[in-house]
Task: inverse folding
């Protein structure tokens, strides 16, 4: 009797372990990448791996900033396993706070060194690029601005828009320009934009809408919003600015493991998937048309990132500068 009872107990313990193993087959992802583009990727991972994917998305208006603030607030009780960031800077803010768990994915070995951390704390993939979107009905072909610095010319007064610099890629653009130009010249440039009455709106998507409707002639935005506007048949075009000067800001996605997450094994599997050539190819072919960081990934010529002259920035330096200029950004934006 005791022998049968022992077998029953062992069977129940084994069953409990099995159920625990099944329950552990999940991963919690916080992401600032647009849901339209990230959701299909994450669903495909879940379908292939059998791992349940729980996702927390950021809002359009608070892009990246909101999700990062949540991660920081949860530092001592991490709820997320993976952070998929739509820009290359916010993970570095978490790295400075000791919140990332290094992982060198085998799929990261052929990523360009500039887009990954030597210790494996974060890795970039599939980039967006900062562009100038213009309305063809308002801007004659021979007058399309080729540089961001063209826009401080008085002829553009009242004809410009950009997203709030306290959020998303606009804040990164500000910080990158401070790093590239130096504080004095950067403040002079942004002061010129203010003098020209640049409209500060809620998001890059709103910039796209204003330019598409002809409410402004030119807007600062990203390639995904610009391409969406073209796909919608709007009378717009866009340029990669400063190809004869300081270059264009390249902003890869970045992925990292959050320290203290409860599903480290599943987190690594997800990161391996996100860093695959297949995902880069898929994001290039999606409506967002993101640019693969690997030059040999097969995409149309216009999506080959090596065609561009990139702005030469150190992403860690940009992250540091973003924190330092935060009071300036709030003052400039009127907060």
Result:
């Amino acid at each position: 009797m005791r022998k049968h009872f022992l077998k029953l107990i062992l069977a129940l313990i084994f069953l409990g372990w099995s159920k625990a193993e099944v329950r552990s087959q999940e991963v919690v992802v916080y992401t600032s990448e647009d849901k339209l583009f990230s959701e299909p990727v994450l669903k495909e991972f879940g379908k292939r791996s059998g791992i349940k994917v729980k996702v927390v998305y950021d809002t359009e208006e608070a892009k990246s900033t909101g999700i990062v603030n949540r991660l920081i607030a949860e530092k001592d009780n991490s709820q997320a396993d993976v952070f998929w960031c739509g820009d290359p800077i916010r993970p570095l803010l978490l790295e400075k706070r000791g919140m990332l768990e290094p992982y060198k994915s085998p799929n990261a070995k052929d990523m360009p060194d500039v887009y990954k951390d030597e210790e494996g704390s974060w890795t970039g993939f599939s980039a967006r690029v900062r562009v100038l979107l213009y309305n063809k009905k308002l801007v004659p072909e021979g007058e399309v601005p080729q540089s961001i610095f063209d826009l401080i010319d008085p002829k553009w007064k009242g004809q410009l828009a950009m997203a709030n610099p306290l959020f998303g890629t606009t804040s990164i653009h500000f910080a990158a320009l401070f790093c590239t130009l130096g504080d004095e010249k950067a403040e002079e440039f942004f002061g010129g934009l203010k003098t020209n009455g640049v409209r500060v709106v809620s998001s890059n998507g709103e910039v796209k809408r204003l330019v598409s409707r002809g409410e402004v002639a030119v807007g600062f935005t990203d390639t995904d919003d610009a391409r969406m506007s073209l796909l919608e048949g709007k009378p717009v075009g866009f340029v990669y600015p400063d190809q004869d000067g300081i270059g264009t800001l390249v902003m890869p996605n970045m992925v990292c493991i959050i320290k203290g997450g409860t599903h480290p094994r599943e987190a690594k599997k997800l990161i391996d998937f996100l860093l695959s050539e297949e995902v880069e190819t898929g994001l290039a072919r999606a409506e967002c048309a993101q640019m693969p960081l690997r030059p040999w990934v097969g995409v149309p010529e216009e999506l080959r990132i090596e065609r561009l002259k990139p702005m030469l920035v150190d992403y860690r330096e940009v992250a540091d500068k973003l924190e330092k200029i935060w009071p300036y950004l709030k003052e400039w934006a009127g907060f």
Observations:
- DSSP finds twelve helices and ten strands in the chain.
